[in-house]
Amino acid sequence: MKSVPVVSNLTSTGVVGYNSNSYTIMFPALPALKTLGNIGIKRQSAVFEKRSIVRTSTINEVFTITAENHNLDECKQYEEEKSKDVYRKIATETNVEIEVSISKNMNLTFLVRGKKVNVDQAKDKIIASFQTQQITRTINVAKEHHGKLMGKKGVVRKNIEIRTGSRIHIPSIKNTSEIINVTGTRNSTSKAIKELEEIILKLKNISEKEILIDQRHHGAMIGVKGIKVKQFQETFNVKITFPSLDEAKNNLVKIRGLKDDVDKAFQSISELAKALDESLKFPKLGAGNKVVINASKSNVAFKRRLLL
Questions:
Q1: Euclidean distance between CA atoms 63 and 124, whole angstroms
Q2: How far apart are CA 204 and CA 202, in angstroms?
Q3: What are phi and psi of 148, to 5 degrees?
Q4: pLDDT category, 296, cuts 50, 70, 90?
Q5: Could you tell me which residues come within 8 angstroms of residue 242 by beta carbon, excluding any fewer than 6 positions away?
Q6: Entry pTM
Q7: Residue 59: phi, psi to the nearest 5?
Q8: How far apart are CA 287 and CA 163, in angstroms?
Q9: β-pairing, 58-65 with 239-241?
Q10: What is the Cα–Cα distance from 303 to 308, expressed in whole angstroms?
Q11: Among the listed residues 160, 156, 151, 155, the one whose alpha carbon sits nearest the alpha carbon of residue 184
Q12: For 1-5, what is the mean pLDDT?
């Protein structure tokens, strides 16, 4: 166990000596007690030893800061020296003696010596210094999820940083690293990592389903400027991808999102596609035919309206 040099602000008080000969001259022995014969009771001579009770106001307080609760590293000499400066300042402010030991597993054990009120203050200050200490924690996230954690124009990352008070560094697209760094206090980094992990958990539950829909129905389902498909996506919280116009005779439509949302969207779109297929069986009635899609309900209704 490596011991950090003692930081001390206590002054030692010397013990004044005395001469035993001068003491016996100034304070001669008392005469022995006599027997009280007139009462008929013999009282033995008593020897009283006056024991001086030494009271001290100095106490020792020992406590440990575990490795996961501090940012010291055997390779970070600068961080270690900076921490020593903090302890010296605390010792000076509270008038105590502080000794720090670092174990092999990087736990820090503190011995604080002084008056109780000062020791309590010093301990609180030491613990507070670790709570406000800037640390960097890392999480390993599959590269495919980095984009979602960043968000469009970094909005997802920025919102997490604002809510937690931490700083999040996500590697660029060109960087193949899967390590994400989170910097801040222990409390802020814990909150940020929790939010990131919640997003990652959802991303791991992402599901995708494919459905064949006659390309002749794609326009009706997409709507003018994509308004219909946007309603679907907002209602079911999924992403729906139709083939481009250049892909002739491609009937494959993809639905992507959380598994439960994808299942609901798939069922609703299947019902709509079936209704649209039925509409092809009716004779053409001219421009008066209109398809109305109501996406406000879980079961999307298809109506064929005849306009005279």
A1: 11
A2: 5
A3: -70, -35
A4: very low
A5: 218, 221, 222, 229, 253
A6: 0.45
A7: -125, 160
A8: 54
A9: unpaired
A10: 16
A11: 160
A12: 49
Query: Is the Cα torsion angle 230, 236, 238, 244 positive or negative in sign?
Result: negative
Which amino acid, one-letter code, is at 18? Y
Q: Which single residue is written with the structure tokens 């039925």?
A: 278
Residue by residue, DSSP assigns 22-88 as HHHHHSPPPPPPPPBGGGTB---------PPPP---EEEEEEEE-GGGS---TT-HHHHHHHHHHHH
Q: What are 18's two structure tokens?
A: 């005395």
Work out the pLDDT band at 46, boundaries 50, 70, 90: very low
Q: In whole angstroms, give the CA distance from residue 87 to residue 109.
A: 13
Q: Write out the two tokens for 263.
A: 């299942």
| Tens digit of each residue's pLDDT (9 = 90 or more) over 86-95 | 899 999 999 9
| DSSP symbol at 295 | T
Yes or no: say if 98 and 122 are a contact pair by the CB < 8 Å rule: yes
Residue 33 has pLDDT above 80, yes or no: no
